[in-house]
Records
---
Amino acid sequence: MTMETEPTSTGSTSASSRRVSYFYDAEVGNYHYGQGHPMKPHRVRMTHNLVVNYGLYKKMDVFRPRLLSPTAMTRFHSDDYINFLKVITPDNMTDYTRQLQRFNVGEDCPVFDGLFEFCQLYTSGSIGGAARLNEDSADIVINWSGGLHHAKKAEASGFCYINDCVLAILELLKKHERVLYIDIDIHHGDGVEEAFYSTNRVMTVSFHKFGEYFPGTGDVNDIGYADGKNYAINFPLNDGMDDEAYESVFKPVLSKVMEHFAPGAIVLQCGADSLSGDRLGCFNLSVKGHADCVAFMRSYNIPMLVLGGGGYTLRNVPRCWTYETAVVVGEPVKDDLPFNDYYDYFGPDYSLHLPVSNMENLNSKEYLNRTKTQLIDILREVEPVPGTQIQTGQVESQLNPRGFGMEADAPSKDEGGNAKSDNPDERSDERMDGRKEHSAELSST
């Protein structure tokens, strides 16, 4: 039996009016953290293959990100750290023992072939996406390779090396007075919160497992510092969060955030490790429950950058991000998966949606209501029009960060992107460095 799954949308704006851009580079799936490591960039390639075979790419402008320079990464990260990532390889690690320890590179964040190029790829998609939002070339931009939210100014952390979330927010701040960051990864978005902890131009909102769980931060009482007080919102959760419980806290808290903070742009980190059955996670969300968060924020019709993040059960992450792509473009998709290059991964049911487990939800209604009330009280303290200078420790990342010198990565259809071809499925590619997409990359056969 074939079931059509209707993406959720609670907004009054018609789905067809959303201009969606999608960033993807086929190279991203070639990078490998190492044998047995739970982080597998291959999941982004699997997601893209499903997006193509569902035909969702026809509803979006698809771009390959233009690689940003190492200098652009120092908008947030320290020069020493970026220079280290540029030179470190598996072959010369023994020459950099002290720096490996200093920058926390080696175990959770291993050195692997092409490490810096991998960082450039995922970060360029996020910054390129933010640039498209800034120039009003898109309403929503997707970069499933991004969302690596743990990286610090001068330290790798939690499988993350460059914090593309922070860099994308800094790009958005060139145009928007206030930017909202939302994190539905099971892990606390500590790197992003830390970067903007003392400013009121960025509000960070994180729903995460708390208590003897990486990274160990994100207590409900961590609300920001100085001018950033009340602009860090943390909802610590216990094992077993299900769809109903998650919705009962996400929508009221974010409704109040939108009411009081009134952001000009949103960055939504959609880590899929909060799904039921994740290799490293302990929540019990369905694909649809996870995607309901995307649909809810989409309904506000505010420029939004949608990023990936965690997600360590290889067969489930592409299901989640493909369905969320469908939600973003407003296109119904069948539950039966189309044939694709990785079809065997999705057996034995070969369906987009999976049943959740019967694990107990350790979050009582009393606890959830109490924490929700506490956060809403904090949000009532938010000043109506924030405007304090950004300080991330780098000279160029203050109130009006100096530009990257990055124009849009490729023209939109209106500007002659896909419109240069009679084939509506052909991908825009204005790059002059000779790296064209493979002719079969967007083939659905």
---
Amino acid sequence: MGLVNAFYRYLYKAKGTADDFSAVKANVRNNVHRALSALGSVCRYHEGDKKGASDHVDPTALVVISPSKLSWSNLSDACYAMFRVFIEKKDVGTKCKALRAMCGAFIARPRLMLAVEHTGVLSDVMSDKAHPDLILESLKCWCDILLSEERRIESGEAKEEMDMKESITTSVKISGDQDGDSTLVGGVLTQHSSRLYKLTTNTSPAIRHACVELIGHLLRQGLINPMETVPYLLALQGDVGSPLIRQLALKLLIKEGCVKFLLRFSLSL
């Protein structure tokens, strides 16, 4: 806990020193970014966050606490509150690091992501007003969260976590409602599907590529309607400056059977 407390203590001292960390000394800015990355990784992989955290979360009630009060039981909540402070900073580098750290907390606690969705944070990082680097980082984070949840289910970890929860009765297990976390992440992201489709026309090739990758994960997991993606994936066939994006979009069209459907439809005209 000592090393974790050291990272948290550093952020606790630094949070009020500047609103724009691009204007401070490079070593201070780099240390802040390292501390955010470290705490994000701890939140992601620390088993206590998964076993001890409450299923019902009110993100507005989570506040930054004194380092002297930090413990394994409140680490996830305190770190999220700290990440929220730094994601509000003006410089995009710190925003991206804070979002990446927040992603670690979301992976460990999908219900936290659901609760945070209502605060508007997820919409803000993908909005037209957001910096392109922040939008790109958000798309990468959503991909990581989806893939992590997919691995959790396929590895059997989801069943192990379910078995450890004494509150889940046999009838609930049989009914198939035991692992709501498996659908929470996808449900949150599908709320932003219209924004994802719009980002396929973004001027940044990196954002377009990351967006198509995310759409591919959502399609593979059956979280969005394939036919809704057809106009956007077809439009990307005209992306003459980015052959990799064209190939990825075409691969998704073929995999979902959309090409065959369109051919049959055109022949029937």
---
Amino acid sequence: FEGCSHNTTQNQVGATRRLRPSTRRLRRTVMASADPFSAVRARLAEHGQAHLLSPPPPAAAAEDYLRQLRGLDLPRLRRMFESSTSAQPPAGDITPFEDITCVEELPAGGAEAHSEGLRLIAEGKVAALLLAGGSGTRLGSAAPKGCYDIGMPSHKSLFQYHAERLLGARRLAAQHSGRRLEEVHLPLLVMTSEANDGETRAFFAERDRFGLPPDQLHFFTQGMLPAFDERGRILRSSASQLALSPNGNGGVYLSLQEAGLLEEMSRRGVTSVFQAPHPYPAPSGIVRVLPLCFLSDSLSLSLS
């Protein structure tokens, strides 16, 4: 401290001493944050998934990959894998459904059930659900399967066939109940996938939703799950990306809940959802959406 007064030197030394605790805290913080993967690494090792950090991701993608790993519910994923690969039957008694109506049990012509189906639609108690997460690869098309032209003279897509049948059901329900068409609400819930969501939404938008009211058309995305190898180890598609696959048609109910659509439908008074098979095992242009004689019977799914 040459050239400084005695008081100045003492003040500087005092300031240095006062800074030392902060410096130590900063040093501890730096040391703790030096390895942002430490906590995740321990958690992965606990569940037999330590390989997900070997090799580590590139530095530029580390934060995104860390977010993927933190989002894994490892105990649940382990249970799902073990359950799906177990040769043991599920615990508990398995009994057939009791509330099943066979076609043969319907009254001749189904006139009464047909009328009841129109009443349910007119009162806004019904929604249609379309599973449309696949692509048309088996049909020679890379587009979403619902966009496929099945070769009819009209050259309509599968999406258009379904939409127009819903519009027809609304018109019939309005006529049957004496309501104006605008008063009849028949929502269409379309489950897409991460791969085709944008293209599906654009397909509907470019065609003015085939006449469907905007407040009665809802899109939501199918959930994804990590892919496993035969030993139950989660796979990576790259050093910074987990390998993901659609969680199957059964995941539709969880996806509806996560998208807030179950709550939305319940708020609107919808009590039944008709799930149209789309388009498995074959393009389902021949499958009738909302067969009215069934709506009051076995194809109704309580939202509760």
